């Protein structure tokens, strides 16, 4: 009998051992696991609170940095983080930074964590939009756990920012959610500028072409300042629909450049910076 | 330090499960086993093939080669997306030391698993709606290479009566193909970023 007890005690100790190991970083259960620590969750909300705490006013000069498609370029990611911090300290202060998507290559949690550990070194709040690579396998669940909803919007100093999931190939329902875009953009006359940030540009073959005309029409009729994108891996700026609307495609960081947008009232300009 | 302590505890607990010798003579009846009947059961914690995985396998060539087939379960945690994985695992023992007391230490083993994860979010061939070569890798299959070390002991007493002849505890360090691909092109990542430990036990019958 006593042997039996000690046997169960051992089993219990083994399970306890297992539980302790669960909390340890060096044990991966699956490449596709979604098991984030508390400090790695819900980061968009946390960063939006940080932006709100800046208490930026419409008359203030607003600057934000744009990077895109860091994917499997961790060396370049470390460099761009340093370059943005240096720019903010020594040239012009940057209030926050956006990533135009493809934070990861394979949509794996460990990649999400690798890029997070590096982008957390940015001195300003950082908000990423979801890219198509970030959706692969359990990627969407990881994005939602780490950052929050894929479509979201916020107002800073009288400027409206709308983040939109445009990765149409990754979903079995129509993407982008045009109802969300219409609703978020409505009443934009109250704002001095509106920016829409999404990964796949509406003129890309990976965009849902049934939705391209409607997207362009919404951008045009609401006088969006810039429709900002990534995905194409090379910088582009122009009016692809010849309707007077400006579309900006941000370089992959592999090309070692980032963009700084400066907003002074209704005057908006950008600068492409090599690092 | 915590990890090393925990791993050591795991080893001692597993290897000592059958306790001290139970003085009793058991008559051995040699039965020739059919080749396809498995001769070992495995239980593993972590290692990229499941939170826990369990299965049956074969010890071949005087235990120099192990072939195991495991089912692994990973709970959903906060995203409620649990993962079911089937794994074929090949282990080769490169360096083994026998001790007279019935213990042996397989100092260095290495091998690789091929895992298959189930679910609509995983594909083997790229779904048709993507342009050709849009993603170059498959998400359902993963190659999981590893190195391991194992401590084995011939059973005695009550445990031996159940038909389990030997027990083994092993510690594994491994990674997976996509993580290897990430590290080879980046100085910013180091081996600690991609390795993952696993502990397990084998019961040979």
UniProtKB/TrEMBL annotation, chain A:
Single GO MF descriptor: hydrolase activity
Which PROSITE patterns does its entry note?
A: PROKAR_LIPOPROTEIN
This protein's source sits in the domain of life called Bacteria
The residue ranges of the Calcineurin-like phosphoesterase domain are: 62-234
Q: What InterPro entries does the database record attribute to this sequence?
A: Calcineurin-like_PHP, Metallo-depent_PP-like, STPP_CPPED1
SUPFAM superfamilies assigned? Metallo-dependent phosphatases (SSF56300)
Q: Name one Pfam family in it.
A: Metallophos
What is this protein's name? Calcineurin-like phosphoesterase domain-containing protein
The species this protein belongs to is: Adhaeribacter pallidiroseus
From TrEMBL, chain B:
Instruction: Tell me which domain of life the UniProt entry assigns to the organism this sequence originates from.
Output: Bacteria
Q: What is this protein called?
A: Outer membrane protein beta-barrel domain-containing protein
State the taxonomy lineage: Bacteria, Pseudomonadati, Bacteroidota, Cytophagia, Cytophagales
């Amino acid at each position: 009998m006593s042997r039996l007890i000690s046997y169960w005690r051992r089993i219990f100790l083994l399970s306890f051992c297992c539980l302790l190991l669960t909390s340890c970083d060096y044990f991966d259960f699956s490449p596709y696991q979604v098991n984030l620590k508390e400090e790695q969750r819900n980061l968009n909300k946390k960063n939006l609170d940080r932006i709100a705490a800046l208490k930026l006013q419409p008359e203030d000069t607003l600057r934000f940095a744009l990077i895109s498609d860091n994917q499997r370029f961790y060396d370049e990611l470390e460099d761009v983080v340093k370059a943005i911090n240096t720019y903010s300290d020594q040239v012009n202060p940057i209030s926050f930074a956006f990533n135009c998507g493809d934070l990861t290559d394979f949509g794996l949690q460990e990649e999400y964590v690798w890029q997070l550990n590096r982008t957390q070194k940015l001195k300003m709040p950082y908000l990423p939009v979801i890219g198509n690579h970030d959706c692969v396998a359990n990627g969407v669940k990881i994005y939602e756990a780490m950052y929050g909803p894929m479509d979201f919007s916020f107002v800073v100093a009288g400027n409206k920012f709308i983040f939109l999931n445009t990765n149409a190939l990754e979903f079995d329902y129509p993407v982008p959610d045009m109802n969300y875009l219409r609703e978020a953009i409505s009443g934009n006359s109250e704002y001095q500028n509106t920016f829409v940030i999404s990964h796949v540009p509406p003129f890309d073959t990976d965009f849902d072409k049934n939705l391209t005309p409607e997207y362009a029409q919404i951008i045009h009729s609401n006088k969006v300042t810039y429709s900002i994108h990534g995905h194409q891996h090379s910088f582009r700026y122009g009016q692809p629909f010849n309707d007077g609307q400006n579309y900006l495609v941000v370089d992959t960081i592999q090309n070692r450049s980032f963009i700084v947008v400066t907003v002074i009232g209704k005057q908006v300009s950008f600068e492409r910076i090599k690092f | 330090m915590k990890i090393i302590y925990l791993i050591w505890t795991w080893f001692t607990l597993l290897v000592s499960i059958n306790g001290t010798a139970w003085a009793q003579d058991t008559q051995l009846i040699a039965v020739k086993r059919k080749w396809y009947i498995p001769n070992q059961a495995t239980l593993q914690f972590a290692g990229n093939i499941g939170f826990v995985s369990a299965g049956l396998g074969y010890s071949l060539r005087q235990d120099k080669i192990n072939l195991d087939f495991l089912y692994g379960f990973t709970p959903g945690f906060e995203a409620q997306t649990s993962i079911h994985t089937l794994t074929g695992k090949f282990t080769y023992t490169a360096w083994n030391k026998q001790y007279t007391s019935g213990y042996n230490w397989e100092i260095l083993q290495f091998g690789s698993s091929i895992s298959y994860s189930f679910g609509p979010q995983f594909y083997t061939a790229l779904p048709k709606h993507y342009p050709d070569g849009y993603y170059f890798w498959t998400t359902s299959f993963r190659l999981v290479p590893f190195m391991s070390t194992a401590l084995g002991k011939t059973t005695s007493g009550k445990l031996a009566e159940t038909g389990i002849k030997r027990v083994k505890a092993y510690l594994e360090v491994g990674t997976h193909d996509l993580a290897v691909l990430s590290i080879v092109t980046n100085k910013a990542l180091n081996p600690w970023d991609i390795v993952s430990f696993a502990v397990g036990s084998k019961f040979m019958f």
